[in-house]
Design a protein that fits this description.
By secondary structure, the chain is of the alpha/beta class. The protein is about 40% helix and about 20% strand. It folds into two domains: about 5-60 and about 360-410, Urease, subunit C, domain 1 (Roll); about 60-70 and about 120-350, TIM Barrel. GO terms for molecular function: 5'-methylthioadenosine deaminase activity; metal ion binding; S-adenosylhomocysteine deaminase activity.
């Protein structure tokens, strides 16, 4: 047994975003790409082959910000701005969530992601052991964490929430044979009090734990910080020490020139969530400006209740479209930039060594079929990835050198029972919540 997987006969998206005829050999032992090239099939003895004839082999998409178990709340409350949506609908429903619900919702979301070619995600939620169990079973990769909210909690509960986030970050780092990594995850700069935020971040820094949080998502989140502190939110975040190179923040919609310069200087990444920003009418992130400044930009779906799906192809199209609208320039966020953000950019943002097809990189791949009418003719594969491919065009998904979906059949989870359980649990959750 060689333990090698061959992805044969396809065209391959290279790190420089060019496309060439090339096979890919992945080592299931190391989980890494062994070789890429037009003739590598002849050089290796492999024991498993995936047919990619007529397909494009690309890095697995990386969903750099989500709350995966929120699939159970998909379509539960729509058409409201962020603050009332969270306070009146989402948080009360989440208060009724049981650990088994989080497991079921996470599995549903992971099935959806595997189907649409996403191989890794960053997740902020609670009952993180359930998310980890789902990741382990499904075979995907994730950076997970417990979201801390201290507002409206007494001192003891608030401190316990911070402690839980640090505990989770310590305990699960390296789980699922190394496919799980972690971060300390204060929910946002306005939902976590300053003292506990500083303490938590300080501990995270001492222990080399990355920090992930929501920031500058709406003006309603920016204004109180400016009013109270006389400084912009990211200047405050910098002062707290949460803009290190390992750190990544979700949204960054309302960021000014100085904040963008600060991000570029410190090396913290921004995860752009265009669908969520449109749906909650949060605003338009200055993505092209961030890219021009040298900020690492990834893309995320955010939770399914504000999207309402976890299809990263939708997301990267939205990123390209909204980037143009926001910059008032059709040349802004071009196809290649959007594809890069959803792969290498997201991988860099959340700190995993994936998102590019080259020897040595993690063997996380999506094989996209180009046969459908909406993908004809085939002038430019990268254009299609940004503007025309849908998640349902993904034929095979590979993570860590292991095939998770072959010919649209998920091998690691029983899709039918995952969907059935999620439906049942969502129904009783809503009953309990109301
Ligand atoms: N420990 C916290 C939970 C925080 S998890 C992260 C939270 O982010 C929420 N969330 C989802 N989407 C967004 C968004 O776009 N902005 C801010 N929060 C969001 C999500 O519903 C979840 O409650 C508690 O006890 O309430
Ligand atoms: Zn979020």
């Amino acid at each position: 047994m060689t333990n090698l997987l061959l992805v044969a006969g396809g065209r391959t998206l290279r790190p420089d975003l060019t496309v060439e005829r090339a096979d890919v050999v992945a080592d299931r032992g190391t989980g890494r790409i062994e070789a890429v090239g037009p003739d590598v099939a002849e050089e290796y003895e492999v024991d498993e082959t995936l047919d990619a004839e007529g397909c494009l082999v690309m890095p697995g998409l990386v969903n750099a910000h989500t709350h995966v178990a929120m699939t159970l709340l998909r379509g539960y409350a729509d058409d409201k701005p962020l603050d009332p949506w969270l306070r009146e609908d989402i948080w009360p429903a989440e208060a009724a969530l049981e650990p088994g619900d989080v497991r079921a919702g996470a599995k549903l979301g992971i099935v959806e992601m595997i189907r649409s070619g996403t191989t890794a995600f960053a997740d902020m939620y609670f009952d993180v052991d359930e998310v980890v169990a789902a990741v382990e079973e499904a075979g995907v990769r994730a950076r997970v964490g417990h979201g801390v909210v201290t507002v409206a909690k007494d001192d003891e509960d608030a401190a316990a929430d911070v402690e839980e986030s640090l505990r989770v970050a310590r305990e699960f780092d390296g789980a699922a044979e190394g496919r799980v990594s972690t971060a300390f995850m204060p929910h946002s700069l306005t939902t976590v009090g300053e003292e506990l935020l500083r303490e938590g971040v300080e501990t995270a820094r001492e222990e080399d734990i990355p920090v992930h949080f929501h920031a500058n998502e709406t003006t309603a989140e920016v204004e109180p910080i400016v009013a109270e502190r006389g400084e912009r939110p990211l200047s405050y975040a910098d002062d707290v020490g949460m803009l290190a190179e390992s750190d990544f923040l979700a949204h960054g919609v309302h960021t000014d020139d100085e904040e963008i310069a600060l991000l570029a200087e410190r090396g913290a990444a921004v995860v752009h969530c265009p669908a969520s920003n449109m749906k909650l009418a949060s605003g338009i992130a200055p993505v092209q400006q961030m890219l021009d400044a040298g900020v690492t930009v990834g893309i995320g779906t955010d939770g399914a209740a504000s999207n309402n799906d976890l299809d990263m192809f939708d997301e990267l199209r939205d990123a390209a479209m909204l980037g143009k609208l926001g910059a008032d320039d059709a040349a802004a966020v071009p196809a290649a930039a959007a594809v890069k953000a959803a792969t290498a950019g997201s991988a860099e943002a959340i700190g995993i060594d994936a998102g590019r097809i080259e020897p040595g990189a993690l063997a996380d791949l999506a094989v996209v079929e180009f046969d459908a009418p909406h993908l004809a003719p085939r002038h430019d594969d990268v254009s299609h990835l940004a503007y025309a491919v849908r998640g349902s065009d993904v034929r095979h998904t590979v993570c860590d050198g292991r095939v998770l979906m072959r010919d649209r059949e998920i091998l690691t989870l029983d899709e039918e029972s995952v969907v059935a359980e999620a439906r049942e649990r969502a129904a009783s959750l809503v009953e309990r919540a109301e």
